[in-house]
Amino acid sequence: MTATVGREQAAARANDVWKVYGSGEAQVAALRGVSAEFERGRFTAIMGPSGSGKSTLMHCLAGLDTVTKGTVMIGDTTVTGLNDAGLTKLRRDKVGFIFQQFNLLPTLTAQENILLPLSIAGRKPDPAWYDTVIDTVGLRDRLGHRPAQLSGGQQQRVACARALVARPEVIFADEPTGNLDSRSGAEVLKFLRNSVREHGQTIVMVTHDPTAAAYADRVVFLADGQIVSELIEPTAETVLDTMKKLDAPVEVGN
Amino acid sequence: MLRATLKSLLARKLRLLLSGLAVVLGVMFVSGAFVLTDTLGRSFDAVFADAYAEVDVSVEAKPKIDVSTAEGMPLSTPMPASVLDRIKAVPGVADAEGVVAADGARMIGSNGKVVTSFGPPQLGQNWLGESDLVEIREGRAPQADDEIVINTALAEAGKVKVGDRVGVLTLAPKKEFTLVGVFGYSGGRDSIGGANEVYFTTPVAQQLMLGKPDVFSNVSVQAADGTTPEALRDEVARTLGADYQVKTGEQLAADASAGLKEGLSFFNKILLGFAAVALLVGTFLILNTFSIIVAQRTRELALMRAIGASGKQVIGSVVLEALAVGLIASVLGLAAGIGVGALLAYLFGQLAGGLTLAGLGVPASAVIGAFAVGMLITVIAALLPALRASRIPPIAAMQDVATPDRPLTKVTIGGAVVTGIGAVLLFLGLGGHAGDSTLATILGGVLFAFIGVALLTPIISRPVVSLLGAMFSWSVPGKLGRLNSGRNPRRTAITAAALMVGIALVTGVTVILDSAKGSIGKLAEDTIKAELVISGSTTGPRPASFDPAVLEKAAAIPGVQLVSGEYGDMAVVGGERTWVAVSSNVAALQQIFGAKATAGDISRLAPDQMLVSSDTAKARNLAVGSTVPVQLSRGEARTYTVSGIYESSQLTNPVTLPPQAAADFSIPQPIQGFLQLAPGTSVGAVQPQVERLLADSPEVSVADRAAFIEQQTGQLDSLLQMIQILLALAIVIAVLGIINTLALSVLERTRELGLLRAIGLRRAQTMRMITVEAVVISIFGALLGVVVGAGLGAAVVEALKDEGITDLILPWGQMVTFLILAAIIGVVAAVLPAIRAARINVLGAIAHD
Fold this sequence. Notes:
Chain A: One of its GO terms (molecular function) is ATP hydrolysis activity. By secondary structure, chain A is α/β, with parallel strands linked by helices. Helices cover 37% and strands 25% of the residues of chain A.
């Protein structure tokens, strides 16, 4: 099926995307003709069992991986076929990342980590927005600390601030709570949801945790490289139910 | 970005400094060489400016033969005393003095041995009285013909004092004099530029130093008030005509200083050569360190890319890091170089008999050279890792991208091509096809060969390392160590290549010198038919010589069949500078040196005849009956007729003149004497008799043939030792490289090591595992070095076949020693990384991310 939301122009869009690894006998199709739109100012979760292709879809959407067939767009930029310079520009201007492993530079302070994307691009932060971001993540008293001096939740909040501060078209979050305890995870998720609601940020999050997915405005379900289902305004229960249904045919098949 | 780079640099400062150490050493040599040359150069300038301070203008007859500083002091043509009167009559001349000054006044010290100067001249001069410069410190001026004064440095070196009878060797054999005075120079200096000086009365100096009465080497002219030295110079030159060189004191000082500086530049080149070796090895180390660091920072660099850094920015950040390392290494190297330059200048000054050093000079060239070399090398070495860093995909930030084992095809093809270029350059250079740039071509060939082999090393390393490792595979830690050393062929290869360069150079030089020594020894043994040889060791440009009367007396000793004294000098033969020789007994040519006639008669020589070698005959287009004008160091040019041609060999000279010509050589005394004994005569019986004859010629001694050969080739041994010591430095740098690589590998494998410890590997076993890895890498490097070095050495020996190095001698013992040494190096290099590995906290390592 195709997940589309036609109300507004999409922040990111996949059109019949195929991703095939290997060749010949060893060929594995991670994505089989996925078409999806992720509309502006909303928090979308991509869910699916292990090996369903959810991470691959995100990598392709973000321009981190090439697609075998189909096109990917971010805003009005066609990602497919961009060269390295184009992709670099895309990452600077339109895309932000939040990783499962936080991926902060251990030698830099929290503040330096947050400002790193801007300084790489040679830009000055907008002071008002910077203050807003810092206050939203609640890290003002921790700015001078190194990542090693911060808790996991704090580190992930620094990573979130880093993604937000450049005001990208879309933020891709890869299992952002995977390495956190449930309390810190909830904080991070609330914070992500707030940045969508209050500041109109677009976020696409990959997760396999129904509770995390429940924070999103919409959940897209993947299985075997295809979009199989979708939920608007999900709760943990509805997500869990859908997941169970997705697993069921496979069990029958066995 | 800049800040991120610098901060990450600071976090790894120790590691980077270790790799920068090689650059520090290289830069040290470069700047040290410049500092030394500058300091000594200015010292020479000061010395000679002083020495000629009181001379307004000096007049000298043109030397018959031009010689370079390395060949000794030019022998000025003596000018008749009448010239002095002509000069005095020139308007503007206040006063003029006839000066006698020539090299070759060798004083015998209280121990019976000649006091040598190790380079600076041993001047014999006529005493002209005290001056602002020269002051008698003790005693008085020479008045009688058997009185001399000498400079303080010479008196101290020879341990003689005023009132002693001392022997002096000059053009004449040993003569005894009474030492009546010791002098020094203003400012408390005991010598000028390390020269040994003996002053005689004028007639004695003329006879002993110039060989004729009433002649001078030069005339020193004082200008009258109101006449500038330049004006006076032009006036005197016009009066005397073209046969005389007229120079101002300033010109003389500049010329003398320039001559010595030329000699210094040779020293400079040696230092720069070692700098090149250190930097080449250093390049490998930096390349390796940066490669490993880039590999370890994959995730960090990928993150940078993911949050918007361009490939260029990543390259920039790695290059910036290299620049910072290069900058720090250059600063340290420059500081060390200034120290080394100052130390060498001090030692040089001491060796040259107390040369007063001008203030330590750090010329701009030293600073620019240090930074240019240090930073350039570091950046070049880091370029490849930087390029690799820029190719890290941003996706690597999200997942552990298994970096696939990149195929070695490209590297291997590149290596083969580079090695090929090196081989071609070596072939061209060694085969003599490169013309003027032979040396540059050979050095280029060696450099390309090294880089080429280094590129080929990864592919070679697989089979060789696994074979070497098999020796240690009997235990589990050994097996793990072996597998570790084989798992990153590139890294292993570069580490081993750094060691290879040093060991290859030492092996190559040893092969060449051993072969040369063996070949010369064999040749001498096979062809010199003399049982006893009189010769001395040379400590400066001037060879040791002895009284020609010894030859006649030795011939009279019962049992001595044939005696020949050998003389040699530079001469101008048919317009070209050529080495000419005289054998006091022409028959020796055939009977002692085994010369074979190819044309004419080579067994006798009339006073107007000469013999030439077949090579000379061919080059100059000479045949029996050709006439050739010859200008010797003394006397007028005269024409000789070629009466015979002998086959060129290692033991023959280009031109042989009749014995009468030796009197006009700059050293009219034999340099070597060869004695052939009648069959059945005991060497032991004759030797002491010859020794007694040499009592008045303390520069030389008599030895049997074996001892003579040993003495001749012994110089090669000391040369070899010197080169080995300096190249050992390259090996030390390589050891640092092994330590660095291992330390980084241990760090990289923290998790793996923790796992091994968790499943029961003991501390000692962990250490053994690391040690095996180090030993395998270093033996591999040494093996490569020995093979490459022996190959290069053999190629050079092959190329020098025509120059008389006929036997290829491979120093097997030494090569095995290198391999054993490499094993020890491996163990030593492993100590610190192994301790570090053993101390890894098991729990922390497994949780380590």
